[in-house]
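Notebook B, p. 112. Complex prediction, attempt 2.
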Amino acid sequence: MIISPAKFSKPSDREIALERTFNAARDRVWKAMTDPELLAQWWGRGNPLVIEKFEFERGGHWRFVEHSPHGVHGFEGRYREIKAPERMVMTFEWDGMPGHVIVNTIELKDLGDGRTLLTARSLFHTHEERDGMLNTGMEAGAEQSYQALDRLLAR
Amino acid sequence: MIISPAKFSKPSDREIALERTFNAARDRVWKAMTDPELLAQWWGRGNPLVIEKFEFERGGHWRFVEHSPHGVHGFEGRYREIKAPERMVMTFEWDGMPGHVIVNTIELKDLGDGRTLLTARSLFHTHEERDGMLNTGMEAGAEQSYQALDRLLAR
């Protein structure tokens, strides 16, 4: 089945939203997003990923370090809400811009035909931070990660 | 000299601002805000405070735990910007509402007569989070902390 790339939109001047369909049942997609061994295989554009912290519960912290050919990038945040297997809300902060915090809300919808729709919404403190993120090539980076997730789900 | 309590305002629907004058030169106020031994004597309304982390540099983390008569409250965040002795920007998150992150910008202005004007601005992701913070009695709590700081500066 052909998979369409993530579709991005701007629901408000401080948000980015995206939709992406995966060829796998929701429980498998949820597992790939919440089992650190699986997560490390696709998060961070499929580059080698060190999961330094993964306290997957409300109030818990996470910290992932991506080793890309162009450098080492640390990301971290904290879980605000987790409702398996359909919804998680967490903060997201890149070491390169410490103290600039995004709230990510990720939802998985079971499409009933063995496919799963992921929707994600990112809320920034300011319009400028939102546009700064778009200018980093974040859209292409997210799609690279999702393609790595496609490959994992296909195995 | 009589000290007026902190004056609060709402510069926008996602912000809280405050002004507070201290009877001390700016360098002393800055030191009381950045030396962990001094900080522990006034931050958190003057209650016993455990400074678990205090990496006072851009990108560094902080974590303070206040032991009040009504319970234990953890707070944490990360430094975004530090310009001694006049300005610091950091995030602020209370354990009770993990993933709800405020950006605090604190500035000290030397009034030239041995007094210092502190201005602080807190930016929330949403209007609801801003109003929720005001409903916790945050204004009285901040003033209690500043009164503890007054006592420290008077010694």
